User: Fold Peptidyl-prolyl cis-trans isomerase from Microbacterium imperiale.
Amino acid sequence: MTDDRTKPEIDAPEGPAPDDLAVRDLIVGDGAEAKPGDTVTVHYVGVEYTSGEEFDSSWNRGESIQFPLRGLIQGWQDGIPGMKVGGRRELVIPPHLAYGPAGGHFLGGKTLIFIIDLLAVG
Assistant:
């Protein structure tokens, strides 16, 4: 299925960051559909919108990660449901749906881009 995929490259975006969650399917999967509250197994890479700097990637750790959607940032909770296993989706998440305003978390106040490969739904 997705075992033959490689880590996606994220090109630096142009223009201002969106004010709302932007969801774009890069590859539409044909497996089970993720629903709100599901536990998902994913591979992902995340970069900051303005700098293009990567801040996290499951690919770099060499293994996928599994977690319940309800424990994630709101942008993931809103952006993954409807995605099907085998798919690859880009989420552009503004601060109010990510880590909130600047201060607190090191990603606070930042718009984030994630590319997520959905491997399984539990």
Q: What stands out?
A: The chain is about 10% helix and 35% strand.
